[in-house]
């Protein structure tokens, strides 16, 4: 027969198996602190868990009073700290192949000796690759939850947060409201001024929405020209006030289109979470309220009214 590769059977050499068994026993029972550290670090991609392991293994060799780590990953500050400080400090910028993966600081009441500092550096060298992997994992997770055009959380992030909000609302009898906002006649902006201006307007709108809300609220890009705002501890009336504030923030935006100034409006639909409905039904009710706002003239807010 043609085109069938011949498979050559190889036999395992008993001596290889013996060597493997010995290596495994050495590896699993190793008292070598660097092997133990890297083995433990390789079991997780959680940066927080890795830093806990690093602090434990470091502390068993070089005692310290406090260890802290700081890094900005995907526009967010990641901070880890354990123990209470001391006046003596050694600080390391963790770099690999020209990329920084955070700053590690150790504090102690007594000065670090040169031998101890060398020890810290050896431990960091062994830990840097797993730490880099954990940082990259956070960045990838963040990217999957972020809208590439506006850099605000995307629909996937909204779905996750709505699920959590509906659970919390039921467990703690807390009020949550959702606003869906949709730019009015956005197609005309694209048609008349082009997609570059349309994209710019979407970015400006995301910024205006973020500025118009409280720190505890969050904005998401829900779809093309549609945004969502999740408001914890907020009832219908308060949510309507926020929606009106958002509308006026968007109406105040101005885009210079080479001599002419472009301005836009946005319509908003509000729905308070009604247990025990799920996230999907909650969105559907906010969408119904938005549909009414569009249908009744745009640039207005409509609330899916509930009876308490
Ligand atoms: N520039 C740009 N346009 C987008 C993007 N996503 C969706 N759109 C456009 O947004 C427009 C939405 O149009 P419609 O759904 O008709 O809505 P509208 O023109 O805003 O009308 P109303 O919502 O009824 O007021 C379409 O032309 C899409 O192509 C994007 O990322 N960038």
From TrEMBL:
Enzyme Commission number(s) of this protein: 2.7.7.65
SMART domains: GGDEF (SM00267)
GO CC terms: plasma membrane
Cleaved signal peptide residues: none
Main EC class the enzyme belongs to: transferase
Protein origin, superkingdom: Bacteria
GO molecular function: diguanylate cyclase activity
Named cofactor requirement(s): Mg(2+)
InterPro entries: Diguanylate_Cyclase, GGDEF_dom, Nucleotide_cyclase, Rev_trsase/Diguanyl_cyclase
A Gene Ontology BP annotation from the UniProt entry: negative regulation of bacterial-type flagellum-dependent cell motility
PROSITE patterns given in the database record: GGDEF
Name of the protein in question: diguanylate cyclase
Native species: Marinobacter antarcticus
Domain GGDEF: 174-306
Catalytic activity: 2 GTP = 3',3'-c-di-GMP + 2 diphosphate
């Amino acid at each position: 027969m043609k085109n069938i590769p011949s498979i050559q059977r190889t036999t395992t050499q008993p001596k290889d198996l013996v060597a493997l068994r010995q290596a495994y026993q050495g590896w699993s029972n190793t008292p070598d602190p660097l092997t133990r550290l890297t083995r433990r670090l390789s079991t997780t991609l959680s940066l927080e868990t890795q830093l806990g392991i690093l602090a434990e293994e470091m502390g068993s060799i070089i005692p310290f009073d406090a260890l802290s780590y700081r890094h900005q990953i995907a526009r967010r500050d990641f901070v880890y700290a354990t123990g209470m400080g001391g006046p003596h400090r050694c600080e390391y910028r963790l770099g690999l192949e020209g990329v920084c993966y955070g700053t590690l600081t150790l504090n102690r009441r007594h000065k670090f000796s040169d031998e101890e500092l060398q020890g810290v550096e050896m431990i960091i060298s062994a830990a840097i690759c797993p730490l880099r992997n954990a940082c990259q994992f956070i960045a990838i997770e963040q990217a999957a939850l972020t809208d590439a055009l506006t850099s605000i959380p995307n629909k996937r992030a909204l779905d996750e947060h709505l699920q959590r909000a509906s659970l919390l609302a039921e467990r703690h009898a807390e009020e949550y409201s959702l606003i869906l906002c949709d730019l009015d006649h956005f197609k005309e902006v694209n048609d008349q001024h082009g997609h570059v201006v349309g994209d710019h307007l979407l970015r400006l709108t995301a910024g205006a929405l973020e500025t118009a809300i409280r720190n505890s609220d969050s904005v998401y890009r829900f779809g093309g020209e549609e945004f969502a705002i999740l408001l914890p501890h907020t009832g219908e009336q308060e949510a309507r006030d926020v929606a009106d504030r958002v509308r006026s923030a968007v109406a105040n935006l101005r885009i210079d289109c080479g001599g002419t100034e472009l301005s836009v409006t946005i319509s908003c639909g509000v729905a308070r979470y009604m247990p025990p409905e799920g996230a999907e039904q909650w969105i559907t009710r906010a969408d119904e309220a938005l549909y009414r706002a569009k249908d009744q003239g745009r640039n207005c807010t409509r609330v899916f009214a509930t009876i308490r």
